[in-house]
């Protein structure tokens, strides 16, 4: 939850909190227990904040990225077999770009999302509509 100074400002301006989670918060994956638990905590913190702060007009949401082109992706980008496994789980068959996550964050923070609070929004190229999260190690 934001610090007291931030909360005062959020309450005065009917502000918006947008946390960054992961699609890992929406299911489980192989050998990622600590990461999954941490991202699940972000999702639940968001829902609690939405409930607690809604009476002040403050909204709270989480964007849950899937596979995004960042340094974390470097480990699989040079491994064709591993990359093919990733694409098999992502209907759009590509990794997302950081700008695509930024667009989702900007939307949730905007007035266009004034009636949206307490959600975890997957931005994952369709990964969560398949049979689950990444099993890179299997």
UniProtKB/TrEMBL annotation:
Any one Gene Ontology MF annotation carried by this entry is: oxidoreductase activity
Q: Which Pfam families match?
A: adh_short_C2
Tell me the keywords, alphabetical order: Oxidoreductase
Record bears the keyword Oxidoreductase: yes
Oxidoreductase as a keyword? Answer: yes
Q: Which family does it belong to?
A: Belongs to the short-chain dehydrogenases/reductases (SDR) family.
Protein's UniProt name:
NAD(P)-dependent dehydrogenase (Short-subunit alcohol dehydrogenase family)
């Amino acid at each position: 939850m934001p610090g007291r100074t931030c909360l005062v400002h959020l309450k005065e301006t009917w502000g918006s909190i947008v946390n960054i989670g992961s699609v890992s918060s929406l299911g489980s994956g192989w050998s990622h227990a600590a990461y999954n638990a941490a991202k699940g905590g972000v999702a639940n913190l968001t829902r609690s904040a939405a409930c607690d702060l809604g009476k002040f007009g403050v909204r709270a949401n989480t964007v849950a990225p899937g596979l995004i082109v960042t340094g974390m992706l470097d480990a699989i980008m040079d491994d064709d077999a591993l990359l093919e496994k990733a694409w098999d789980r992502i209907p759009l068959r590509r990794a997302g770009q950081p700008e695509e996550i930024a667009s989702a964050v900007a939307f949730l923070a905007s007035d266009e999302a004034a009636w949206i609070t307490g959600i975890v929004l997957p931005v994952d190229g369709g990964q969560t509509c398949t049979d689950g999260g990444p099993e890179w190690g299997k």
